[in-house]
Amino acid sequence: MPPARPMTRRKLPIGMQTFREVRQEGCYYVDKTAYIRRLLDEGKHFFLSRPRRFGKSLFLDTCKELFEGSELLFEGLAVHDAWDWSVRRPVLRLSFGRGNFKEPGYLHTNLMAQLDAVERETGAASGYASAPERFGQLLEGLHRGAGRRVAVLVDEYDKPILDALDVPEVARANRDFLRGLYATIKDCDAHVRFTFLTGVSWSLQRGCTRGDPSQERASKVSLFSGLNNLTDLTIDPAYSAICGYTDADLDTVFAPELDGLDRGAIRNWYNGYSWRGAEKVYNPFDILLLFRNREFDAYWFETGTPTFLVETLFRRGVSPLELEGMTASAGLLGAFDVDRIEPAALLFQTGYLTIRSTASRGGRTRYRLGYPNREVWHSLNESLLAHLTRDPRRENNADRLLDLLADGDVPALRDLFRAFFASIPYEWYTNNDVARFEGYYAGVFYAYFASALGPAVTVEDSGSRGRADMAVRTAGRVYVFEFKVVEQAGPGAAMAQLKARGYADKYRGLGEPVHLVGVEFSSASRNVVAFDHETA
């Protein structure tokens, strides 16, 4: 029998990253302390990658309070009765969450200021002016002063690099600086009890796999080449819910907030992030804002415009059609190189795609990626469209698209897309090679639909005799699309393929009107030149 729902409403911990504040203010808290106990039982040095606003900083702060022996804060939590509260350990916590890391030399200044603060607070001191030496001396001093080995906690370990990606020479310098700093942890292992580093990028540190070039490249540029004894938790199924909220958390901890909200819609909008665990998780920021505002919106997405991501996708010729169902190895997903960032790795590490399934072929594991939820599906495709055109009518046109699909008005749908393609500035084509790639026009078409309809759009819709390019089920109607470039396939080829291969057969008998739509583009006119339509 499931536990009874607690119905006393608490304060929502929106924007709170300190464990003490969350507990003392009587806020909702999803207990993650059992993970800390497990980590200490299993090893010593750990690394975790998660997208922004997933609760990484709060988890680190929880570790800090636990090692410092703040017993009252942990009453009623999983770790309380399994912890020796008579022992207090020194903690050295670093965070690179703030500062202008694009400025040459600023990273050194930032770190020195943090070490100054630690020395003032603890009374430890070092005469070194160079960062690794001072860091190592401080670890030794804390150990000797307390008689206990140190817990080292590093938040936003990669932000000095990520912030400077558009200034490559600074990003490289920051990377090299941090590599030397993190290597100090291994060199001072005798003084360290526990290490936990977390950030957004997933830089492989578990060594290269023979015959896998992507892993070899990642290993060469890893920030942790000098700290190669880290245990990577990023896609460890046992730690998939170490950050984020599960369905069970919503139904128990947050039960008082669910009244008046559609539970299925919450799951559809925000659930779906997966790091190979049995349970998918929600981004906490989305859930807390939903409970405060009581309406659905793209809360997480809107806190960080993915300009760099979108520009990278177009520059590398990645069609929106490719995003849902993209596959990659662990080596590729973990590749992190200032000079070349793989689109799959960038999309996964930043949270715009997540792991849908895992398969092993020839002794190598492959991961199939997909959008985590409706929020990201809608919003990322809207950002892709916004990159193409500054047409202020774009959002109104999305509403128009929904109305036309509901009415089955295919001729008006044709006119809508002709107007949209005409709105893409000529300069965009002349300045970008992506328009030359096969599937570009179909990808733009798909992004338009996906930004309005999200998961109602299926790419490469499988049937008994092949796969249609796209299918849409909405408002009691089914639309099956095939796309062709007329200069390559010839006039009428799209509709001919739809009919010859019976792509509509799977939808017959459902009681819904089925529309076959053959869309033909011209690379010369850069627009739709045919929009053939039949009802199956």
Overview of this structure, please?
The protein is an alpha/beta fold. The protein is built from 21 helices and 13 strands. It has helices at 19-24, 33-42, 56-67, 106-122, 131-146, 159-162, 168-187, 213-221, 247-252, 263-270, 284-293, 307-315, 330-333, 343-349, 374-388, 394-407, 410-423, 426-431, 440-453, 486-489, 493-500, and strands at residues 45-49, 91-95, 150-155, 192-199, 231-232, 327-329, 354-361, 364-370, 457-463, 466-474, 477-485, 514-522, 527-535. It has a 5-stranded parallel beta sheet. The protein has a 5-stranded mixed beta sheet with strand order 9-10-11-12-13, sandwiched between helices. Helix 4 runs parallel beside helix 5 and helix 15 packs across helix 19. The chain starts with 18 loop residues before the first helix and ends with a strand.
Short description, anyone?
Helices cover 40% and strands 16% of the residues.
